[in-house]
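Objective 1b. Sequence-to-structure analysis of Glycosyltransferase.
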Amino acid sequence: MTPSADTPACALSVVVPVYNGARTVGTLVAALSNLAIPGGHEIILVDDGSVDDSRSVCERLARTVSRVPVTFARLSRNFGEHNAVMAGLGLARGAYIITMDDDLQNPPEAVIHLFRHACDGGYDVVYTYCDRKRHSAFRNVGSAFANRTAALMLGLPPGLYLSTFRCLSAFVAREACRYTGPFPFVDGLVLQVTRSIGRLRVAHLPRAGGRSNYTLRRLVRLWLSIALNFSTLPLRLSAFLGIGAMAGGVLLSGALLVRHLLLDIPVTGDAGLLAALLLTSGLSLAMLGVVGEYAGRTFQTVSARPQYVIRAVVSSRDEPADPAPYSDAPCF
């Protein structure tokens, strides 16, 4: 499912991936529903296999919130944040789509400023950044490393920070949704479509409740998606390392042979030979690991492993046969 290529039904869709956010998602939806967006807006909640009461909370919100349309999609299991965002993008009907977390660390009122900035600047994408991130030290380090990895692999514009609080045009979202593989990295897909990118500074608040879902496993999955899905640099690096190891082996063998022939020094040194074998074996295994990861991902993509599976959708919006077209109101 992709965002409609026809006239959007509203000006803005706000996509919120939810994972164990039962304590905060209600407050977030209440604040978002009170925003005054020219042209109207909708809220899309995607539950990514939460193990708390997120499902019941989101279902209640989708059935009871009346100020704006609220759609709740429940995934069949935990697929990951980027997969959940892709599911939300597929359900979005707005001319612009904002994605944000459910933890209230991004103030809901900043949605208006982000939307206006995208409209006024004519950007395809706007990423937010903050002067001080109120995350744990582990998450800050992990996010910085992931951003550096993305900069290296994707060639990010200077100074761009890849934030989950972002605004996309419907065109970019539609093109990103053409990717149906099981390993989406939203920002990588976005950067394949456009380089019309803006930046907006926003506040970053302390976490409202609960604990962060940011884990080492999630971080490793993100690194792998960045490094292996959108760049051949790891393959090239492994090839260069292999060539370097072979060149070193040739030079070392040549030096030992010259010493033996010209200086009559016998070739000895079991320790040196063992070290050389360990080095070359380690490099070979590293290269095989990278190639194997690529092959495994290719196999899973070809075998049609799903990117996400929506178990059920609950929506507060009415679905007329011919939805009223979006009024092309100016962004102000």
